[in-house]
Amino acid sequence: MSKIRDEVLSANSKYTKDFGDKAKLPMPPGRRFAILTCMDARLDPARYAGLAEGDAHVIRNAGGRASDDAIRSLVISYKLLGTREWFVIHHTDCGMQTFTDEIMCNLLRSSLKGASIDASGWHDAGGGGGSTEGDYIKWLTIGKQEPSVLEDVQRIRNHPLVPSDIPIHGYIYDVHSGKLVEVPEACAAGRAKN
Ligand SMILES: [Zn+2]
């Protein structure tokens, strides 16, 4: 039996005891906005942005990048579920800054096992059984946060399925203070146009 599985199910059991009237929540987000942010375990969008259940959509992936799938979710969020304002929030000390597509592809070619990082970079566990399939994925790594936030806001803004009247805000979450820091160029690029 997995210890983590037991812990999750035990926590869930406690959660359902205080579930209250959340069963009555409507599906569309009550505060009509969405956040695209990184999956980093240190980020808790519900807390850093003051969300309760039913308030907003939170779309998460590695880096909080505007991948095709993130845009798919945002378009559904607007078109079918009524969000009218979006945030792109990357963060300091993101894991996506620690590698490049080339590094990731080489690690995966070496083996599928977990890699480790030290001062000289990433090292694969080895042992064979790797794959070249990683070569066909855009890993959407990050160099510096400001340009990555700007790039993603622009990508969403210019997407043919995104309406021009939805504002898109670009921010960086500081993992040392919890503060959201505006990326002015990104907010300017994401300004709503009528
Ligand atoms: Zn991250």
Set out the fold topology.
Layout: H1 3-17, E1 33-38, H2 45-48, E2 56-61, H3 68-79, E3 86-91, H4 101-110, E4 116-118, E5 121-123, H5 145-157, E6 168-173, E7 180-182, H6 184-189
Parallel strand pairs: 1-2, 1-3, 3-6
Antiparallel strand pairs: 4-5, 6-7
The appropriate CATH architecture of the largest domain is: 3-Layer(aba) Sandwich
Q: Which regions contain 5 or more consecutive residues with pLDDT less than 50?
A: none
The SS-based structural class is: alpha/beta
Number of helices: 6
CATH class of the largest domain: Alpha Beta
Average per-residue pLDDT, rounded, comes to 97
What is the CA-based Rg, rounded? 19 Å
Largest beta-sheet characterization: 5 strands, mixed
List cofactors, ions and other ligands: zinc ion
Helix content bin: 25-40%
SSE string, helix = H, strand = E? HEHEHEHEEHEEH
Can you walk me through this structure?
It contains 6 helices and 7 strands, in the order αβαβαβαββαββα. It has 194 residues and is an alpha/beta fold. The protein folds into 2 domains: 29-96 and 141-194, Carbonic anhydrase (Beta-carbonic Anhydrase, Chain A); 100-138, no CATH class. A 5-stranded mixed sheet has the order 2-1-3-6-7. Strand 1 (33-38), helix 2 and strand 2 form a beta-alpha-beta unit. The model has no long low-confidence stretch (mean pLDDT 97). Zinc ion (ZN) binds at residues 38, 40, 63, 91, 94-96.
Core attributes:
binds zinc ion; 6 helices; about 190 residues; 2 domains; alpha/beta; single chain; Beta-carbonic Anhydrase, Chain A; Carbonic_anhydrase_sf
